[in-house]
Amino acid sequence: MAERDLTVGIAGLGAIGLHLARALDAGVEGLRLVAVAARDRAKAERSLAGFRQPPAVVGLGELAERADVVVEAAPAAVFEEVARAAIARGRIFMPASVGALLPRMRLVEEARRTGARIIVPTGALLGLDAVRAAAEGPVESVTIETRKPPRGLAGAPYLERHGIDVAAITAPTRVFQGNAFDAAQGFPANVNVAAALALAGIGPERTRVEIWADPGVTRNMHTIRVEAEAARLTMTIENVPSEENPRTGRITPLSILACLRGLTSTLRVGS
Ligand SMILES: NC(=O)C1=CN([C@@H]2O[C@H](COP(=O)(O)OP(=O)(O)OC[C@H]3O[C@@H](n4cnc5c(N)ncnc54)[C@H](O)[C@@H]3O)[C@@H](O)[C@H]2O)C=CC1
Ligand SMILES: O=C([O-])CC(=O)C(=O)O
């Protein structure tokens, strides 16, 4: 390991975490996977068995003791534990469960005190470079429309509270309309993209979100529209759902990997 290599720890070995772990183990210049945290230790050890350099399997809070960069790729319910430990130790904290950051913005203040950095990857979304650039000037509106196969929304607390059974939906149906803050609360495992967009642009209260359950689509689709003084943006991404977790697009671990590479690469492209 070169002296300037960054060590990486990953919380969660699911659709995102395991793919990311495999990619890092295959070799990424300047980065080295040293630890992972998993709910089921025996299963994790089986998943890591073929690795060239198997990372240590540790508790969630211990990742920050071992790694310079802590990637969170676990359910939102354990976000606080992972984030708190990483921030207390002044690490780079890279969350996938971005929706869980919105009601915890005090963590940003805490990071300022400890010298930690919180780096939100683009994840399953696109165009956050352009949104950030536009938000350096006046922005009139930011909206995101998320359209998923109904099974990609199943289990969301908002749907349960409103008695919406997505399995029974046979035509495209708008199941939520509101701001990004309420979307992240109501759909904690489904619209991290809306949270990331809000943080890149004009904040969770002003960012408008529509969520559609659409039996006619096979991909998780997100369309962003931004009306700003400098530019008008319209962008769509159509994500192939991952096999392990249909709520999660296959591009997500790739986006996190690209974001990690950006921490050490000599040539970095995009703002
Ligand atoms: N930012 C973005 O664009 C995206 C974010 N996400 C979010 O990323 C997170 C991870 O997503 P996936 O990998 O698809 O989920 P997943 O459900 O496939 O994997 C999560 C993993 O965490 C493990 N886990 C559960 N409790 C744990 C604990 N206490 N300690 C350690 N591990 C634990 C589970 O066993 C599972 O292997 C979710 O919150 C998801 O909503 C997902 C897709 C896109
Ligand atoms: O934002 C999310 O949580 C996941 C998502 O929509 C996707 O992977 O396309």
From TrEMBL:
One GO MF term: oxidoreductase activity, acting on the CH-NH2 group of donors, NAD or NADP as acceptor
BP terms from Gene Ontology: NAD+ biosynthetic process
Domain Aspartate/homoserine dehydrogenase NAD-binding: 12-121
NAD in keyword set: yes
Active site residues of this protein: H222
Pfam families: Asp_DH_C, NAD_binding_3
EC number: 1.4.1.21
PANTHER family in the cross-refs: ASPARTATE DEHYDROGENASE DOMAIN-CONTAINING PROTEIN, L-ASPARTATE DEHYDROGENASE-RELATED
Further remarks about this protein from its record: The iminoaspartate product is unstable in aqueous solution and can decompose to oxaloacetate and ammonia.
Function: Specifically catalyzes the NAD or NADP-dependent dehydrogenation of L-aspartate to iminoaspartate.
Protein name (Swiss-Prot/TrEMBL): L-aspartate dehydrogenase
